[in-house]
Amino acid sequence: MKNLLLPAVLLVASSVAAHADTIEVEMLNKNEAGERMVFSQELIRAEVGDIIRFIPTDKSHNAQSVKNAIPEGQEGFRGKINQVVEYEVTETGLTAVVCLPHQSMGMVALIVVGDDLSNAEQILAARIPGKGGDKIEALLEDAREALAPTEDASDQSS
Ligand SMILES: [Cu+2]
């Protein structure tokens, strides 16, 4: 009897997962590559309806959005040090995320929702200090590359 029930349970679970994901991002003193004071994911791809959960795996970090570096209509967030904070995605576009104590050391992340890069200029204009600003620029480049058409063939081949 158990075997008969299992497929139905899996179907329900997978349809919920397809609808909205929870994306977990850890706040780390050191990642696997040996980089210090980092988020475990720095370029975070998400869709409207997803929740991005920042987890204080190591101590003395926080995660928060940056004023004016967030899609229009999207509510920002500000986690306290050593606390989990969740970002509920309601709009497409780019959001800059920083750890306040370590942003100038490069502890930043860039969220890309719905493959929408339309507020890139605001992200750059937010002037995140030090290495954080450099990394945000680099992440924006990565996002542009990730979203670029993979082949020119689709353009004019008809
Ligand atoms: Cu930090």
Structural summary, described in words:
The protein has four helices and eight strands. With 158 residues, the protein is an alpha/beta fold. It has a single domain, classed as Immunoglobulin-like (Sandwich), CATH 2.60.40. The strands form two sheets. It has a four-stranded mixed β-sheet, with no helix packed on it. It has a four-stranded mixed β-sheet with strand order 3-8-7-5, covered by helices on one side. A hairpin with a 5-residue loop joins strand 1 (22-30) and strand 2. The longest helix is centred in the N-terminal third of the chain and has 18 residues, at 2-19. The N and C termini lie far apart (54 Å). The mean pLDDT is 90. The structure holds copper (II) ion (CU). Copper (II) ion is lined by residues 27, 37, 61, 99, 101-102, 107.
Précis, in short:
The chain is α/β, with parallel strands linked by helices and 158 residues long. The protein is built from four helices and eight strands. The strands form two sheets. The protein has a four-stranded mixed beta sheet, with no helix packed on it.
Compile the SSE list and pairings:
Elements: H1 2-19, E1 22-30, E2 36-39, E3 43-46, E4 51-55, E5 64-65, E6 85-88, E7 93-98, E8 108-113, H2 120-125, H3 130-147, H4 153-156
Parallel strand pairs: 1-4, 3-8
Antiparallel strand pairs: 1-2, 4-6, 5-7, 7-8
The chain binds copper (II) ion.
Copper (II) ion is lined by residues 27, 37, 61, 99, 101-102, 107.
